[in-house]
Amino acid sequence: MAVQAAEAAGALLSARVDGPLGVRPKGAGGDVVTELDTAAEDLIVERLRASYPGHRIIAEESGILDGAPGEDMVWLVDPLDGTNNVAIGMPVYAVGLALCARAEPVLGVVHDPVSGRTWSAVRGRGALGPDGRPLTLADRPRPGREKNPLLAWTQGHQVGAGDPVAFAMRSALELRCARMLQLWAPLVAWTMLARGDIDGIVGYLPEIVDLPAGMLVAAEAGAELRRLDGAPYELGIDRPPSELGFVAARPELLDRLLETTAKIDPRDGRAPLAR
After folding, report:
1. From 93, 117, 134, 195, which residue has the greatest number of CB atoms within 10 Å?
2. Cα distances (Å, whole numbers) of residue 272 to 50, 178, 260
3. What is the CA radius of gyration of the chain?
4. Is 81 annotated as a binding-site member?
5. pLDDT confidence band for 28 (50 / 70 / 90)
6. Candidates 3.30.1370.10, 3.40.190.290, 3.40.190.80, 3.10.20.310; correct CATH number of 150-262?
7. Distance CA 75, CA 226 (A)
8. DSSP letter, residue 126
9. Residue 229 annotated as binding?
10. Is residue 55 a contact partner of residue 1, using CB atoms and an 8 Å limit?
């Protein structure tokens, strides 16, 4: 059902993305929302309500939609991850759905309307690629990337341009990688990590709705996650943004990235930036 809902929303987006978008500001951080966001979200929420009327829903645009009293199952809906890209005509966006049990993600679906591909995962049962076959990270990174990894960076909309921690961490990481992508669509980056197209992702004060679906796909494919300070990572939708920062990477790369992120002082961003 989750795959079908994500793909139906993707079909809606693909059919209307080249038409009038009705772009309007969202908050004070430069984010935007379009009529596509709300239309895709309405479609997904309608399907969730029809199949699981008692489940709670946390949707990107609608917020918290209550379910039955005492219900532990919660859906997170990101109907259009990459709205800013769509608004400027850049075809990098995705649809994400995650199901959480007692705040812990147990199912994730990411659909890419541009390519028509879908990735999914169930906790403890692995990830599936677009062909329906198990998705597993290769044993080794792609040639030339053993010491020069390709990374992605994501941060929450509340992070300002002058944030000293974000600036210090990005700068330090860029000195230690071949390239750092900032896609404005974290769900796309998560599927890239799961496929081995990139080697790691670092997130600073990330948006909760962007996390569970893609993170579960990447983790079930073989990526490992830690907090920015190197502590074990526990993703829960009830945690504040300050506890959601992460490093996700191929297992053999994780410690190297943590050598960089763990040195950044979370109070002022001070850290040595030498190689």
Report:
1. 93
2. 54, 19, 9
3. 18
4. yes
5. low
6. 3.40.190.80
7. 24
8. E
9. no
10. no
**Topology of the domain covering 1-135:** Fructose-1,6-Bisphosphatase; Chain A, domain 1 (3.30.540)
Closest of 52, 51, 56, 50 to residue 69, by C-alpha:
56
Q: Cβ distance 41 to 77 under 8 Å?
A: yes
- The domain locations on the chain are 1-135, 150-262
Alpha-carbon distance 69 to 189, whole Å?
36
Cα gap 122→107, rounded to integer Å: 5
Which pair of tokens denotes residue 204? 């600073």
Reported as a pLDDT band with limits 50, 70 and 90, residue 275 is very low
- Please tell me the distance from the alpha carbon of residue 141 to that of residue 138, in angstroms, as a whole number: 7
Of 24, 58, 3, residue with least CA distance to 208 = 58
Distance between CA 177 and CA 156 in Å, rounded? 22
Spatial neighbors of 181 by CB under 8 A, at least 6 apart, are 150, 151, 152, 153, 189, 198
Is the pLDDT at 230 greater than 70? The verdict is: yes
Q: Is 60 annotated as a binding residue?
A: yes
DSSP 8-state assignment for residue 210: G
